[in-house]
Amino acid sequence: MAKQDRAVRTRHALIHSAAEAFERRGYVQATLMEISAAAGVSVGALHFHFTSKAEVATSVEMAAAVRLRRAAEKAQQPGMSALQRLTGTSYALADQLRRDVVSRAGLKLSGDGVREGGLDLRREWQDFVRSVLAEASDQEFRNEPVERNDMADLIFAATTGIELLSRRDPAWASPPLLSTFWRLVLPQVPQS
Predict the structure, then answer these.
(1) What is the pLDDT of residues 78-95, one digit of tens each?
(2) DSSP assignment, residue 168?
(3) Range of the domain at 153
(4) Bigger pLDDT: 149 or 161?
(5) If you average pLDDT over residues 32-41, what whole number do you get?
(6) What confidence tens digit (pLDDT) does each residue in 167-187 have?
(7) How many CA atoms lie within 13 A of 166 on its CB side?
(8) Is Acyltransferase one of the keywords (predicted)?
(9) How far is the CA of 88 from the CAs of 21, 55, 71, 91, 136, in angstroms?
(10) Does pTM surpass 0.85?
(11) Does residue 190 belong to any structural domain of this protein?
């Protein structure tokens, strides 16, 4: 059992150090040597867990997806309106990205176009925004001057821009800025 626990800890350490390397230097520039050294293991130990840098990156993406999806699920409480779920989820995801390097690196890797395949976490967010706006009742959406699909595209584009800007300055994804954004976009929705 102790060997299994150590293997799990080593794998988690490698994913964390890979996330730091991918966030700092990007997928192409990050090396397996720096990832293993930061995790405190040999390159051979890294290859015990992962066959390639692409597999390490996929594992970072998968770990990020789990963490981001969990944060989104926790933000959605029973009794919330569709638009409250949307705004609450945006705050939860922004908080997760501020606090967690694996989430940030996984999102950065996702859909980066450098590797074949992989997840597209931004597409998941876009699909979520569209589905929530489709669920919103006419009463919730009553004062909006644009079509719901156009609104979904605007929200997706703006929140993706906020996420990208927050990579250099975390204030872009701060609760006060998000509150201002949501007050401008959806003024009748109570803010989280």
Answers:
(1) 999 899 999 999 999 999
(2) T
(3) 2-185
(4) 161
(5) 96
(6) 889 899 999 999 999 988 886
(7) 26
(8) no
(9) 30, 33, 10, 5, 14
(10) yes
(11) no
The span from the CA of 156 to the CA of 22, in Å, is: 24
Identify the CA nearest to 125 among candidates 154, 149, 90. Answer: 90
* CA separation for the pair 93, 67 (Å, rounded): 9
Residue 191 forms part of a structural domain: no
Residue 120 lies in a domain: yes
Note whether residue 192 is domain-resident. no
Instruction: Please name the residues in contact with 158: beta carbons below 8 A apart, sequence gap of 6 or more.
Output: 181, 185
What percent of the chain stands above pLDDT 70? 93
Region label for 42, one of left (φ > 0), alpha (ψ between -120 and 50) or beta (otherwise): beta
Number of domains comprising the chain: 1
Q: How far apart are CA 98 and CA 92, in angstroms?
A: 10
**151 vs 14: CA distance, rounded Å:** 40
Whole-number Å distance between alpha carbons of 41 and 43? 7
Nearest to 27 by CA among 108, 133, 148, 120: 108
Q: Quote the Cα angle for 87-91-96, to 5°.
A: 145
CATH number of the domain encompassing residue 85: 1.10.357.10
pLDDT per residue over 111-156, tens digit each?
A: 777 777 778 899 999 999 999 998 887 767 666 667 888 889 999 9
